[in-house]
């Protein structure tokens, strides 16, 4: 079983009027970082902040009256759960979402608020999926798979129709891969319309299941990732052959690059992206020489990032850019020494965030002390100027956190 351009066009016609079109915007500042002309498809602007609404809605709209009366069921701990719950409720279809027992309460509550009945079951995603299939068989419910369903994949492919209408002369299209529904649908449409278009898939390095499967390697996945939306341990039976036939290459990106991409999208493009949603930008930043001077389209596939994770990413980004640093400064252990240090730092334009005065736990002479100072600075050049100024004033100073 596979999907065709006609399936994607039928999905577009089916969901038209139910789902607002998301914009494709040019991102010149992000493009400058990679030396390319970059265009971003903003799938984070859907009501539930994810592309998953396209496939879920296409599937739900295809159901017959008897199937609608019986209801639907899905297994998901993330964006697919919200997409199914949102549109099933809107269409008057009863929905049940099975989530693993470890699912954070905020995700459970959000899904219930969208109108679904949530069943918590199992310690793993596979146990939750098996339970969902059992419930579907027992109660006559239609199972809505997150990616391995031709109607779902065709629905996701409608994003490519819109993107190529907005930017018809793309040279390359970069798409995140989890189970493969998004890239299978988009590649089907894009390659049918533009056979010369290069398509690159992106996986996080901890979950490279599709890349390993394509290479005939054993699938080994695991670990904590900021891109949990694409942390899928097995590619789909439907999606893998499509990816093999249509996608030029599948690449991996590590955690540091994913964090950077989330940070850049927030601070440069002013768009909230989850780790999986930022994966395409991460791939472009990882290999800028590959995309240099080309017109590149990327999919920002989702924006459902935990606020605590976003806060950490933003603060770590400031450290990376040298805008928050920690300096260790040696001073004499005498009255007024600390005041002179803080005055020098203030005169140099640094804003002091924290001060830790150490006498006992560092290897320093008894008449000396060390001060660890956390500072807000302008950039890395400013940091270098601060260090030089402190040394010139007779205070040994070293940078405790590398920047850049």
UniProtKB/TrEMBL annotation:
Gene Ontology terms for molecular function: L-serine ammonia-lyase activity; threonine deaminase activity
BP-aspect Gene Ontology terms: isoleucine biosynthetic process; L-serine catabolic process; L-threonine catabolic process
Pfam families: ACT, PALP
Catalytic activity from the UniProt record: L-serine = pyruvate + NH4(+)
Signal peptide from the UniProt entry: none
EC nos: 4.3.1.19
InterPro entries, sorted: ACT-like_dom_sf (IPR045865), ACT_dom (IPR002912), ACT_ThrD-II-like (IPR044561), Ser/Thr_Dehydratase (IPR050147), Thr_deHydtase_catblc (IPR005789), TrpB-like_PALP (IPR001926), TrpB-like_PALP_sf (IPR036052)
Keywords: Lyase, Plasmid, Pyridoxal phosphate
Positions of the ACT domain: 326-404
Main enzyme class: lyase
Coiled coil: none
Cofactor(s) required, per the database record: pyridoxal 5'-phosphate
NCBIfam families: ilvA_1Cterm, PRK07334.1
Family: Belongs to the serine/threonine dehydratase family.
This protein's name: Threonine dehydratase
Higher taxonomy: Bacteria, Pseudomonadati, Pseudomonadota, Alphaproteobacteria, Rhodospirillales
Chain's gene name: tdcB3
